[in-house]
Amino acid sequence: MFETTDDALAWIQQRGGGDLAEKMGLEFTEFTIDRAVARMPVAGNTQPAMLMHGGAYVVLGESLGSMAANLHAGPGKLAVGIEINASHNRSATSGYVTGVCTPIHLGRTLTTHEIVVTDDDGRRCSTIRITNIIKDLPPKA
Questions:
Q1: Sheet of strand 96-106: strand arrangement
Q2: Which of 22, 62, 83, 114 is catalytic?
Q3: Per residue in 3-18, pLDDT tens?
């Protein structure tokens, strides 16, 4: 699909991760089929106790996993999430969190990715697993 990893990263940066990811400040920094990385600020994504909201970790994980699945799926296909789970280990309180997405399974109809989210000190905050189904895009009318 892309000749270089820079081409894939340029594609995702131009395409974006969607309105929600944009509102949450998600920034893609690396993007290949084997590894996708994005970061997100803690500020603006906290719960009332000023800790990173667990749902924000999941948004980061789903954005990375779904976009990586779509890169694997290729032209004429659409990957959509069908299952996601997360285990939160620690709460970030400042700076950024970074998600690193790696494939567990890349099949013809299903993908599964693991996303490890860490804080600025490299401490694991959350582990997310997402499964996407790959479908044919509907024909354009």
A1: 27-31, 36-41, 96-106, 110-118, 124-136, 77-88
A2: 62
A3: 666 777 777 777 767 8
Alpha helices in the chain (DSSP H): 5-15, 19-23, 54-73
Nearest to 26 by CA among 52, 60, 67, 71: 60
pLDDT in tens, 43-90: 999 999 999 999 999 999 999 999 999 999 998 999 999 999 999 999
Residue 2 has pLDDT above 70, yes or no: no
Residue 21's SS3 state is: helix
Rounded CA-CA distance 36/49 in Å is: 30
Task: Give yes or no: 62 in active site.
Answer: yes
